Amino acid sequence: MSSKLLFSTFEVTTQAFYRASLSYAIVNLKPIVPGHVLVIPNRNVPRITDLNDDELACMMRSIKRVGSVIQKVYGANALTIACQDGVGAGQSVPHVHFHLLPRKSTDPFAGRNDDIYPELEKTEGNLASDMNDVSGSSRLKVDADEDRAPRSLRDMEEEAAHLRRFFTEAESP
């Protein structure tokens, strides 16, 4: 399962840590909380309603599986799962995807859980322009806003390698 993975037109193969038959998961350059990841369908479609039933079922199973693992790995007891489904909802990259954020009482949003949504909006709003900056850059700019420092591609690859260990061979890229 080493085929190239695209998020819209952007290659994200080295950031992938989980792969199912019709979807995959990647780490985030500027996570809102530790363990913030994305689950993405293999087929590039802009909206949830564009997914066929098999793709949607695979996405939901992937969200369940990846969410369960990242909760354990990051010591969380809850998840925020979000999808900006369409331009009017704040989507800036026309490839449907879900944000999974492991949550715990000590995270930066403890006691004010809804404050995480404006952060997600900022993240999503800059996504397309940040990803366009990848060309010729030593730093990958994925799901980023200016309030969080970007991690290096190497840091992201290391996190992906760490997370990959929690999945079976059939589930890992």
From TrEMBL:
Entry superkingdom: Eukaryota
Keyword Hydrolase: yes
InterPro entries membership: Bis(5'-adenosyl)-TPase_reg (IPR051884), FHIT (IPR039383), Histidine_triad_CS (IPR019808), Histidine_triad_HIT (IPR001310), HIT-like (IPR011146), HIT-like_sf (IPR036265)
Chain spans, region Disordered: 122-155
GO molecular function list: hydrolase activity; nucleotide binding
Catalytic site: 97 (tele-amp-histidine intermediate)
Domain HIT: 3-110
Positions bearing the site annotation: Important for induction of apoptosis: 117
Record keywords, A-Z: Hydrolase, Nucleotide-binding
Residue stretches in coiled coil: none
PROSITE patterns (UniProt xref): HIT_1 (PS00892), HIT_2 (PS51084)
Biased composition range(s): Basic and acidic residues: 140-155
UniProt binding sites for substrate: 28, 84, 90-93, 99
Chain ranges for the short sequence motif Histidine triad motif as given in the UniProt record: 95-99
Pfam families according to UniProt: HIT
Protein name, per record: HIT domain-containing protein
